[in-house]
Design a protein that fits this description.
Number of domains: 2
Largest sheet: 6 strands, mixed
CATH architecture of the largest domain: 3-Layer(aba) Sandwich
Helix content: 25-40%
CATH superfamily of the largest domain: P-loop containing nucleotide triphosphate hydrolases
Bound molecules: adenosine-5'-triphosphate
Distance between the termini: 49 Å
Oligomer: single chain
CATH class of the largest domain: Alpha Beta
Strand order of the largest sheet: 6-7-8-3-9-10
Length: 387
């Protein structure tokens, strides 16, 4: 969808901003450009919508060389989100959002209806926030308006330069998650510039790690963290890349332990004997169909009369995560609920539990797989006690 062919930019004062850039962003893919200040990320992005012209090579969008397309027409096909947002201060939020549809000649009513729809999509109430002026919004809300405005004319391409840079870390993570949820439905082709490796890893389908004016590695977040291409990338992604990997490694069925189970409709006495026979202190409680309900302690079952059912003694499960969640999310839920393990579900069906030891194994295995360049499921894990 967006293709860089040996693109270079030397500014008139002789500064080489980028040199020999070649990479491709597939349709519907989100690629993050990450690197230290001044390495050429913004220059790269601005060459796509011709705010800056390259001095070498060419850029193709949908097969078309952008240098042959009228810049104004080109920019209408590309949403552009920048850190300073650039909202018009004397226009309402609704009118700001309707800017591009109005520019391309939509009738006022249609443009405003579309703007209202977009505000809702980014989590703002058009009735409440639409009539306000930008100064009457929080920083996070202004960023959302920036995203809504960029999406208003439904462009196939989104260019985002530090789009979440101006807000505090908590709001930032919130906006990142919201944008990812949005992207899962709108599937734009996105180039996102950031200097924050965490953001690059969290947001990108693939990441381009920039050195000075060139790309040092272009790959998936997992590979960049697990197998940095060279010493520069390794230094840039940091010594705590094992931790960062938590954010990109997903829970798989093989990572789960099967704990003792008890059924909602089972008599307490029978369940208690069964748990005691295997030395278990608790069981996960499931419905007859296998849906997660909660958990029950073996002691509680012991103390109950023979007539009680497991269901009347079970406690609701406070925390669980869906299969495919990241290890980071599972770990964070464990910490938040002060739990020694976390249940994993597929829809409502209980699959198993993830324990800290299994979480460590999953992490270790995925790092090993990337380092050796082999698929993760072909790697065997040996713990220290096996050695
Ligand atoms: N108009 C210009 N004239 C001369 N040099 C420029 C110009 N614009 C940018 N540069 C230089 O080109 C290099 C790349 O700049 P660019 O803005 O693309 O970097 P960046 O990676 O986006 O940095 P940051 O994260 O700080 O925004 C820098 O050395 C910068 O000083």
């Amino acid at each position: 969808m967006i293709r860089f062919e040996q693109v270079g930019k030397v500014y008139p004062d002789g500064t080489t901003a980028v040199d020999g850039l070649s990479f491709e962003v597939a349709k519907g893919e989100l690629v993050t450009l990450v690197g230290p200040s001044g390495c050429g990320k913004t220059t790269t992005m601005m060459m796509v919508n011709r705010l800056i012209e390259p001095t070498a090579g060419r850029i193709l969008v949908d097969g078309e060389d952008v240098s042959t397309v009228d810049p104004v027409r080109l920019r209408r096909r590309m949403g552009y989100v920048i850190q300073q947002v650039g909202l018009f201060p004397h226009r309402t939020v609704l009118d700001n959002t309707a800017t591009v549809p109005a520019l391309i000649g939509w009738k006022r009513a249609r443009a405003r209806a579309r703007a209202a729809e977009l505000l809702e999509l980014v989590g703002l109430d058009p009735a409440v926030h639409g009539p306000r002026y930008p100064a009457q919004l929080s920083g996070g809300q202004r960023q959302r308006v920036g995203v809504a405005r960029a999406l208003a004319a439904d462009p196939p391409v989104l260019l985002m330069d530090e789009p979440f840079g101006a807000v505090d870390p908590v709001v930032r993570e919130h906006l990142q998650n919201e944008f990812l949820a949005l992207q899962a439905t709108v599937r734009k082709t996105v180039l996102l510039v950031t200097h924050d490796i965490e953001e690059a890893v969290r947001m990108g389908d693939r990441i381009a790690v920039y050195g000075q004016g060139r790309i040092e590695q272009f790959d998936t977040p997992g590979t960049v963290l697990g197998a940095p291409a060279n010493a520069y990338v390794a230094r840039f992604v940091g010594a705590d890349r094992g931790l960062k990997r938590l954010a990109v490694t997903r829970i798989e069925p093989d990572d789960l332990e099967e704990p003792p189970l008890a059924r909602l409709d089972e008599p307490a006495g029978a369940a208690a004997r069964r748990l005691r026979s295997v030395g278990a202190r608790w069981a996960v409680v499931v419905s007859p169909a296998g849906d997660l309900h909660g958990w029950v302690a073996a002691d509680t079952l012991d103390l109950a009369g023979e007539g009680a059912t497991v269901g009347s003694l079970a406690r609701r499960m406070e925390a669980w995560v869906p299969l495919g969640s990241t290890l980071k999310r599972a770990f964070s839920e464990m910490l938040q609920h002060d739990a020694g393990w976390i249940a994993v579900v597929d829809g409502s069906r209980f699959l198993g539990v993830l324990t800290p030891a299994r979480l460590h194994e999953a992490l270790r295995r995925s790092v090993d797989a990337d380092e050796r360049g082999i698929p993760r499921d072909e790697v065997e894990f040996h713990s220290v006690s096996d050695a």
